[in-house]
Amino acid sequence: MRPRAVRTTAAPSHPHFPMPVLTTTIDPNSETFRANQRALEEAVAGVNEQLAVARAGGGERYVARHKERGKLLARERIELLLDRDSPFLELCALAAWGTEYTVGATSVIGIGVVEGIECLISAHDPTVRGGAMNPYSFRKGARASDIALQNRLPVVNLVESGGADLPAQAELFIPGGRAFRDITRHSAAALPTVSLVFGNSTAGGAYVPGMSDYIVMIEKRSKVFLGGPPLVKMATGEESTDEELGGASMHARVSGLADALATDEVDAIRLGRQIVSRFNWRKRGPGPSQPADEPIHDPGELLGIASADPKVPFDPREVLARVVDGSRFDEFKPLYGSSLVTGWASIHGYPVGVLANHRGVLFSEEAHKATQFIQLANQIDVPLIFLQNTTGYMVGKEYEQGGIIKHGAMMINAVSNSSVPHITMNIGASYGAGNYGMCGRAYDPRFLFAWPNARSAVMGPAQLAGVLSIVGRQSAAAKGVPFDENADAALRELVEAQIESESLPLFLTARLYDDGIIDPRDTRTVLGMCLSVIDNQPITGTRGYGVFRM
Description:
Elements: E1 10-12, E2 18-20, H1 31-55, H2 60-68, H3 74-81, E3 88-91, E4 107-114, E5 117-124, H4 135-150, E6 155-161, H5 169-176, H6 178-188, E7 193-202, H7 207-210, E8 214-218, E9 223-225, H8 229-236, H9 242-246, H10 248-255, E10 260-262, H11 265-277, H12 302-305, H13 316-320, E11 330-332, E12 340-347, E13 350-357, E14 361-362, H14 364-379, E15 384-390, E16 392-393, H15 397-401, H16 404-417, E17 422-431, H17 432-437, E18 447-450, E19 455-457, H18 461-479, H19 485-502, H20 505-510, H21 523-534
Parallel strand pairs: 5-6, 6-7, 7-8, 7-9, 8-10, 13-15, 14-16, 15-17, 17-18, 17-19
Antiparallel strand pairs: 1-2, 3-4, 4-5, 11-12, 12-13
Helix pairs in contact: 4-6, 14-16, 18-19
C-alpha cells in the first residue's frame, strides 16, 4: 500500500500570491478505500482486456498474413510516425464494442506529436476486412474530423482500405460523403492533410488521398483507383491492370496524383514526417502560465477514492488533490451550493476552472453558482473542466415551486453558450438533465472521457423501473382491473437489468458517447494532453448571453 500523503495548508503558486492547497482525509488502510480499490482495479482490468481485443485487429490469422506480405500493422505505422518517446492519446479505441462489428471499428485514431507538431492521426486497420469502413468506422472518423477542426490540428491519414463495407452500404453511402467534405474544409481552414497510402485505397476511399493536400505512395504497394479491373471490365469492356489503373508509379509519373514515391513503408513514413516538418506551424493559444509541479497527493490513490457503488458519493476535492498542479485549488463560493465544487487551478501549467459534483444532486443554489462561475471563466478566457458525478436536478413539490426548472435552465444556458473550451470527465454517474448541465456529449465538449466506474442514463435503473411500475399501477387502477404484482416484479427486474447494462461505460464508449475510458490514475496526463491540444487555438470567452430566466 502506498504511504499516506503528507498534509499541508498552503504553497505558493505565484511568487506573490499563494493559492490554497487541498488537504486529504483519505485513509488508504480503511476497508472502504480497499473495497473501492479492488472494484476499480477489476474494472480497469476489464477495460484493458477489451483494449487488447481492439489491438489484436482481425486476429492472429489475418495479422500473420498481413506481416507475411512485409507490411506493418496500423499501430506500428503510428509508432514510427511519432516523435521518439512521445505520447499517443488514442481516441474511441473501443468503438463498436458489443456490436456485430470488430472492436475498434477497423481504424485507429488519436493525437500524437510528429516533428514537434501535435497532429490528428487516423490509420486504417487492414487486418479487419481489408480496412473496409462500417457505420462505426464512419462515426469514429467523423469524431476525429471534429476534433481536428475544433482544435486546429493537422491531419495525417495512414491509408489502406477497401472503402465501404458493402453489406452495410445502406448506412454508409449517404452520410459517408461527409468524410470527403471534411477533408476539403480542413484544407480551407489552413489545416494541412497528409495521406500516406500503404495499400489499396479504392472506390470512395480513393477520395481520401485524392482530396488531401499531400500524398505519398509506395512503389508496387499503393493502389488508388475509383474502379478496379473487374469493375472497369464490366462498365466499359476495357482490359487493364491494377498498375495501369492506379499504381503508385503511374500516379507519380502520369496522373500526378502522388506527390512523392516511396520505396517501402518506412520510407513513406520518413517522407510523411518530412512533409509535416515544413508546415511552419505555430500554436496560437496563450500557453501554460502556471507552475506545472506534480500534485502533492498520490494519484495512485484515485482507485480507492472513486466509489465502487455509483449510489455512494465521494468528495471531488480528493480527486482534484491528485490531479491539479501542486494540489492547489482556489475554491469559489465554498459555503454556497455545496453539492457542486467550483474553483480555479492549473494542470500542467494551463489555468483551468473546475466544476465538480459532490453529493450528486443539483439544487437551485448549485445552478446559480455554476452559472456565475461559467460566466467568470468566459470573462477571463479560461477553459473549464467538468467532473461529472450527478443524479440530476432535484425534484419534488418544494423544489418545483422554488423554480428548479428555470434555475437549471440558467445553468444549461450558460454551458450551451460558453465559448471557452470544455473538457468533461465522467468519474461516477451522469444521470438526467445533470448530464446536460455538466456538459455531456450533446453540449460539445472538446473532449469527454470516462472512468471505468462511470454510469450514464436518463435516470438510475431502480428509479426508472420504479417509475414504470407506478405508471402501470395507476393505469390498472384507472381501468378498474387488478394489478399483477408478479408481472410487475418481473418487469422491474428486466428493466433494471436493461438500464444497468445500457448505462455501463463499455456500452456508452462503443457508441462514441465519450472519447474513451481511461484509468483514473492517468487523469492528469490525459487532461494535460487535451489542454495542450486546445492551446493550438486562441481562447476567447463569450461576452454576451441570451435571456436568463431569473
